[in-house]
Each structure stands twice: as C-alpha cells, then as structure tokens.
Amino acid sequence: MHRHLHDFLNPCRAAGLLLLLLGGCATPEGALPLAGLRAGLGPDCWATGAATHIGRGRFLTAAHLVDGTQPLLQGCAPGAAPPSIRFQGRDHTAELLRAGQADLGPGLDPLGLGTVYVGGRDVALLRVAGLAAGAPALPLCAGAPWPGQPLLVLTPRRRATSRIAGLRPEATALHGAYAEMPLRLEPGESGGAVVDASVPCLLGLVSHRAEAGGRPAGTRLVPAPVLRAFLGE
Fold it and tell me: Residue 101 to residues 61, 116, 124, 206, 217: CA-CA distances in angstroms?
C-alpha cells in the first residue's frame, strides 16, 4: 500500500505559494489557517493534533481527538476538559458543536485507529468566540480529490508535499471511504489540513494512518465532499 513519495514540489515553495494566495504578508505562522489542538481526555490523559479554520470562528478537526472515544479505548480516568486551540499565537477555549458518529463495535478497526466512523466522518466542528475579523481561513474545495493530485500537508509538526494515491473504502459500506496519500504521518498530526497544491482550498482532513502487512504505511484523509456533507453544505 505504501508508495515512494515523489517530491514534485518543494515544501518551502509550496508553503510560500499558499501564503501568497491567502494574501499573507504576515509571518508564516500567523498567516496560516492551521491551529494546534489540545484536548483533555481526563486528568492524566491528553490528545494533541490540529484544527483548520474554515471561517467565522469555525474549525474542523478529527473527531477521534475530541469525541470521547479515546478515553474509553485508553482507559483514562473520567474528567474530560473542553478542547483548547492555539491559533495565531493565542490560546482559545473551543466549543464542540458536533462530531461524526463513532462505531466502537469489536473487530471493526483493522487500521489501528481504535474506532471507525459512520460514513467515514472522522470529523468534528469546533467554534471559537471572538476571533479577529479577517483571520486566515481555508474554504473547502469544490470537488473530490483525484489520484495523483498534488497536495500540501499542514500539521503542527511539519509542512510537506504529497499526492493523492487513491480512494480507499472501509471494510463495510456503512463506514464510507477515505482518500489516501503515501506520506506517513505520526501521532499528534491528526486533524491536519490537506490543501490542493494549485488552489488554496481544503482538499481533506488528516484522519489516521493506514497499515500494510501490519506496518504503518500511508495516511487516510476525510475528503472534501465528506466534509461538506458533514457541514450540511
């Protein structure tokens, strides 16, 4: 399943192009629509990842970071705290508006996420009050990702280039399908933004690592059409 990553575009040039298209004359960190996410699963248990601002104080992230499924799977003590977002150098408490429906049935997750989602909707919508007008944001792409499509990946840990390897259905139709890229991401990068390399729009959201032969391989993404359906657009 894992394929060699083709360096079709220099990551620094790609990030610079995104900043230019977003109208960013500010510093790179301040001009990007990406936020760091920290969610308290319990007094001794935390999840970290990313969230992407899509406008009007709304952020998209991976549902498994904030929906309470991970404390169950990790055996955390109860006592979850609201998610916190670090955006443009400031910390904000975020309100969880809604999240995809998790399915925790036994044997449903051959890929190691710990759970699967109805319709492949490993996505949650958060809201932060009081953001400055004109805060950098990404619109959702109009179309679905296609195999070979170049993209830019933004997470709190890195900015990298990759491409769409294809669409990968889950084991059952109930759990939908994900787009996949050959770039392997690490824990803490869930919820990262996957941006069309030619147009500044959100092509997908980092969900989880895929596996091949029991080993981590590529990364699966919630594609833009699923994000749109989740938002009701």
Answer: 14, 9, 10, 17, 25
39, 47, 144, 175, 176 from 188: Cα distances, Å: 11, 7, 25, 23, 24
Residue 22 CB contacts under 8 Å (≥ 6 apart), including other chains: 31, 32, 33, 136, 138, 200
Q: 132 with 233: CB under 8 angstroms?
A: no
Q: Give the DSSP letter string of 158-179.
A: -EEEEE--EEEE-SSGGG-EEE
Q: Which of 182, 191, 141, 178 is nearest to 161 (CA)?
A: 182
Q: Which helix (H) or strand (E) holds 20?
A: helix 11-21
Lookup: tokens for 183 = 């770039």
Residues 122 and 111: beta-carbon distance below 8 Å: no
4 or 25, which is more confident: 25
DSSP, collapsed to helix, strand or coil, labels residue 124 as strand
Distance CA 222, CA 119 (A): 10
What are the residues facing 166 on neighbouring strands?
Answer: 180
- How far is Cα 94 from Cα 91, in angstroms, rounded to an integer? 9
pLDDT band at 185 (very low <50, low <70, confident <90, very high): confident
Going from the C-alpha of 130 to that of each of 23, 56, 58, 85, 200, the distances in angstroms are 22, 9, 11, 13, 24
What are the tokens at 127?
Answer: 């809201």
Structure tokens at 175: 């759990």
Q: Is 220 helix (H, G, I), strand (E, B) or coil?
A: strand
pLDDT given at position 23: 41
Q: What is the pTM of this model?
A: 0.82
